[in-house]
Design goal:
424 residues, alpha+beta, Heat Shock Protein 90, five-stranded mixed β-sheet, 5 strands, Sensor_HK_TwoCompSys, transferase, nucleotide-binding, kinase activity, transmembrane helix
Length: 424
């Protein structure tokens, strides 16, 4: 099924005179304007060499000056601002996607060579289209109105003698309109050619793509780390506060001392969590490097973590056979989060009166963390563990350690080994 003629005509009109074609035409006109100083410099060379006194009266001399000026344009394109400026103009006027262009100065020989080729091509095609845009429309307008204004044939416009004949005079408007269409087609074709070649000549090099990929990977690593921090900190706090509040409500009338301790633990937990949340959000706002957000460590807050957990009714037994102060800071921080997540799992799944055993020791230059608790009232093993266990596995893997979790004989066991050798 063929496209109706009116639709094809509209499609052709958009191709030649649509918004994108007009913007690309403007881009070519700017190239022609940039080419003028180089043409003038070329005329200074061509004039004395050819013995000409009126270069602008000779078309061959103008083309010769243009040809001499383009190599000069290629040399000046080596200045650092050229590629960023050209890329910005190409993005807005030629409709090239932003991620297909490079906006930094050309550094390597290959980048400088491609920039020089682009600048020369832009000025060369722009000079030709700009010259046609100045010369063709007035001449085409004269041809279109020539049959109406017969006096134009006798003026000093330099019209060919053929227009004295009736058939040529009748075809003059058609020739004028065809010249305008040809001009629009030439501008649209040159604009499309520049838009097609722009990514190859002004686009990022392999080194730029690699650097961008590394930057994206680093940003993703930061976001993943912050997501783990928020999950472990806020998730544990919400679980602890929920159980502490529940325990306080149940014994409010019978054990006021325990209720006061639970409320004090809620206050302490929320205060610390708000501080950690503010630190993590500060990293997001300021774009700090990974790990700059302050986080608690075994040496700084293990006792406080156990105390706040017990305040919710969970019976926690801790055996610490390692000196928390001797553990490297990075390992100590990650180990704290692992213990925190293990206790959070116990709070959520084992019940608020369950007995939890935490064991921290050094075995074969590894820090071994074990958290055990009952499976809960249903007595059934839990499914995969969700984001918490995945986060523990990620923390251990990034430090070169291993993490295992599973159910056996009615007990859920989490065991993590973190290497101490070579840690800072």
């Amino acid at each position: 099924m063929t496209t109706p003629s009116p639709a094809r005509a509209r499609s052709l009109a958009r191709l030649l005179c649509g918004r994108r074609a007009r913007l690309r035409w403007v881009h070519l006109i700017l190239g022609g304007a940039l080419a003028m100083p180089y043409v003038l410099v070329g005329s200074v060379v061509v004039g004395p060499a050819m013995g000409a006194t009126n270069l602008f009266g000779s078309v061959p001399m103008q083309f010769a000056s243009f040809g001499v000026g383009l190599p000069l344009a290629a040399v000046t394109s080596l200045f650092p601002p050229t590629r960023p400026l050209e890329a910005g103009v190409v993005r807005w006027l030629c409709g090239v996607d932003e991620d297909r262009l490079a906006y930094g100065p050309a550094r390597t020989k290959g980048e400088k060579g491609r920039t020089a080729a682009w600048f020369t091509l832009h000025l060369g095609l722009g000079g030709i289209v700009a010259g046609m845009s100045l010369a063709v429309p007035p001449f085409a307008a004269v041809l279109i109105v020539l049959p109406v204004f017969a006096g134009l044939r006798d003026s000093r416009l330099g019209l060919p003698a053929v227009f004295d004949q009736a058939w040529a005079l009748a075809l003059a408007p058609v020739a004028g309109a065809a010249m305008l269409v040809a001009l629009a087609g030439c501008a649209a074709g040159c604009g499309a050619l520049l838009a097609r070649w722009a990514p190859a000549l002004l686009g990022p090099s392999a080194e730029d793509r690699l650097a961008a990929a590394e930057a994206r990977a680093a940003d993703l690593a930061v976001r993943n780390r912050l997501a783990r921090e928020l999950h472990d900190s806020v998730g544990h706090a919400l679980s602890a506060v929920m159980l502490q509040a529940s325990a306080a409500r149940r014994v409010l009338d019978t054990d006021r001392e325990f209720a006061r301790e639970a409320l004090a633990a809620i206050e302490d937990t929320t205060r610390r969590t708000v501080g950690e949340l503010d630190a993590v959000l500060g990293v997001l706002r300021d774009g700090d490097a990974p790990g700059t957000a302050p986080a608690p460590t075994l040496a700084a807050d293990l006792d406080g973590l156990l105390r706040r957990t017990r305040a919710g009714g969970l019976r926690v037994t801790a055996t610490v056979a390692a000196d928390p102060a001797a553990v490297p800071p990075l390992i100590s921080r990650e180990a704290y989060r692992i213990v925190q997540e293990g206790l959070s799992n116990a709070l959520r799944h084992a019940g608020d009166r369950a007995a939890v055993a935490v064991d921290i020791e050094v075995v074969d230059e590894h820090l071994r963390i074990t958290v055990e608790n009952p499976l809960g009232e249903a007595g059934a093993p839990r499914p995969g563990g969700g984001h918490g266990l995945r986060g523990i596995a990620d923390r251990a893997r990034l430090l070169g350690g291993v993490a295992r979790a599973g159910a056996a004989e009615g007990t859920w066991r989490l065991q993590v080994r973190l290497p101490l050798k070579g840690s800072v």
